[in-house]
Amino acid sequence: MAPSISLSRPPFSSFNSISSSPSLSFLNKPSTTTVNIYHNHAAGFQTAYRPLLVSCCSNNGAPSLDPINFRQQQVSSMPRPPLGVTMNDNSSSMQKPSYKWRRVLLKVSGEALAGDQLQNIDPKVTMAIAREVASVTRLGIEVAIVVGGGNIFRGASWAGSSGLERSSADYIGMLATVMNAIFLQATMESIGIPTRVQTAFRMSEVAEPYIRRRAIRHLEKGRVVIFAAGTGNPFFTTDTAAALRSAEINAEVVLKATNVDGVYDDDPKRNPNARLLDTLTYQDVTSKELSVMDMTAITLCQENNIPVVVFNLNKPGNISKAIRGESVGTFIGRSAQT
Ligand code: UDP
């Protein structure tokens, strides 16, 4: 029997009432030697931004030998500030710690957005994500998000029912990710985070089309970019979209937010003695067929040397911890991580 679908819950007609974002044209000022990021001072979105000056201190130009920076140097086409930011809020300057990542790609599955599963999307979950993302964008960390759609529709589960071909089913699944993206964007903007949705296939009345260099520009301006519609191709997943977009925009890590604490050596639901693994190599994941992400996604990360952190989205503070590069969940990389 085909799985049931509950497109009518919650009232998705509410999508109709999501207004477009307030004008952000004043944010489009060219930056000179400083980078403008925008700090929401709690009041209204339209009035509350003021620029923070972020000047970047370098490690004296010394080339870094760590593999992530090496990858950056190889593939980056856009000049990027070095690690470590000094935030200068008007007159008073204060030294901030260096964060591990400057640009991250957060993958949020549809299942995670559904929260307690009573409805397709739990607004408490989208708000929790928005708040944590806001806390790190203020630090100058650039955040891109890929959203899944499994809370609404999974192509593979529906393929074959009533003559629905897999490709068509997958396109419906990709449309589901756009619904989630628009919802998440609305939540983000409701607390003052400038956000853009880019879709892998054109839906120009709803969102921008995916344009790599434009996405990077948004990130550099302190906007959160939500990538929707997966890769734009059937037979793929949004995990693969996360790996792909991450490689394209030179994100330093894929942060995979899930409903579990990380990767276990056995199914924790069946085996109470299952152990949470702190660190794994790509090789471990593929050879042991650990269900972290699909093989295409993990292979793409491996080939491009993009680490993956799998962590629990439901624990308060975890998203911001993961984005700041603090130890959380399971780290997957080329070699064991310290
Ligand atoms: N999908 C697709 N191509 C992609 C990404 C997604 O066809 O590049 C479809 C596929 O049907 C999938 C659905 O979109 O089942 C929702 O994505 P996914 O299952 O990855 O979402 P998640 O599990 O992260 O919620």
From TrEMBL:
Task: Give the top-rank taxon of the lineage listed in the UniProt record for this protein.
Answer: Eukaryota
Q: What taxonomic classification does the UniProt entry list for its organism?
A: Eukaryota, Viridiplantae, Streptophyta, Embryophyta, Tracheophyta
Q: Where is the composition biased (Low complexity)?
A: 8-23
So what EC number does this one have?
2.7.4.22
Task: List residues of the Aspartate/glutamate/uridylate kinase domain.
Answer: 103-312
Q: HAMAP family under this entry?
A: PyrH_B
One Gene Ontology term, aspect cellular component: chloroplast stroma
Under the heading InterPro entries, the entry gives: AceGlu_kinase-like_sf (IPR036393), Asp/Glu/Uridylate_kinase (IPR001048), Uridylate_kinase_bac (IPR015963)
Query: Which pathway does the database say it acts in?
Result: Pyrimidine metabolism; CTP biosynthesis via de novo pathway; UDP from UMP (UMPK route): step 1/1
Give the top-level enzyme category.
transferase
Task: Spell out the residue ranges making up region: Disordered.
Answer: 1-23
Q: What is the protein name given in its UniProt record?
A: UMP kinase
- Which keywords accompany this UniProt record? ATP-binding, Kinase, Nucleotide-binding, Pyrimidine biosynthesis, Transferase
Gene Ontology biological-process entries: 'de novo' CTP biosynthetic process; UDP biosynthetic process
Q: Which Pfam families match?
A: AA_kinase
Recorded GO terms, molecular function?
ATP binding; UMP kinase activity
Q: Which family does it belong to?
A: Belongs to the UMP kinase family.
SUPFAM superfamilies, alphabetized: Carbamate kinase-like (SSF53633)
